[in-house]
Amino acid sequence: MLSGAVAALLGTVLVVPAPAAAAPKCGPAGNPAPTQPTWALDRLAPETAWRVSRGGGVTVAVIDSGVSPSHPLLRGKVLPGTDVNHLAQLEGQCDLVGHGTLVAGIIAGRAGTGVPYSGIAPEARILPIRVLADNQRTFDESIPAEIGKAIRWAVDHHANVINLSLVTLDKKELRDAVDYALSSNVVLVAAAGNRQENQQDQPAYPAAYDGVIAVAGIDEQGAHVGSSVTGDYVDVAAPGLNIAGPAPGGSGYLYEPQGGTSFAAAYVSGVVALIRSAHPELNPEQVRYRLTRTADNPPDGHNAEVGYGMVDPYRAVTSLLGTRANPPLGAMPKPEPPADPLAWQRTVAIWVAVVGAVLAGVLLTLRPILARGRRRGWRPGRRPPAVDA
């Protein structure tokens, strides 16, 4: 068991070689944008689900190191949040290390920025709550209580999903806050934990609590990432190696080759946002059921390394789950109609046709009047004499 009340952002130190010459205002500036889609986006293919759901109307609280609102992927998507640790006046929108901003970009980075990168749920919004000042381990006894306070604040400020890319020990304040969120119909997604060198796997909290969706990491080949903690509490898996995402100090990107379950949890939070948008009637346990039953199950159905397997955004959103005795919950929402590139031309053509028809009608009405006027030389006609009854 880890000693003391340990909280850690689950991921190794972010790799930020050659930052921009000008010091960023709040966090590292990052590196050039990727030129090809990341393997994680290729593998998850979230765009296959976007005709049904893009995460619209869903707010995802990111309890982390803060989230920068200035990156093009996140501009206009980061709500005013809070900081339970030192920088309250910045409303959770200062990320000194880049971890929370990268997590937020994975969840809800917007599409169509000219870079081959987006979040899983590009229309979801981010509610940032800063609880950790850096991505190093801390033995501060107040951390579990502060995470619990952050969870309660997120629930009270209308979060639909809470992402917890961090780990701490089991404490009553934290456990009670998780119960409060679940009873308030809020879905919690947490990192299963990263194995430390020469250390046995231990349950990581809040991931190990009942009702919390615990996420392990997998690599490009679909294999369990060796550093990802194993345990019966693991529900699903997602990409947790060779990760990229937005940097907080500008428009650059951070690259995390060693990955971590922090980022795997973020991918799952994005999928949960898609589900909550498409199926708002589902409660947290029903969301978890849909997520696990549509994952790419391992041969044994469930194991301690990857749970029920890697999440599948398309199946998670579109599958009709149920039996004859227990029919599927809710009807599938109608898919969004595909964009029509000729829509404005069609509108113009319709108006031209309408105006042309009106003018033709006017001309047909005036034609006999004009003909009679020509015959009379445009002299006014005479009224016939009145006839006495």
Automatic annotation (TrEMBL):
Residues 1-22 form the signal peptide. Keywords: Cell membrane, Hydrolase, Membrane, Protease, Serine protease, Signal, Transmembrane, Transmembrane helix. GO terms for biological process: proteolysis. It is found in: Cell membrane. The chain crosses the membrane at residues 348-370. Residues 55-309 form the Peptidase S8/S53 domain. Belongs to the peptidase S8 family. This is Type VII secretion-associated serine protease mycosin. It comes from Micromonospora solifontis.
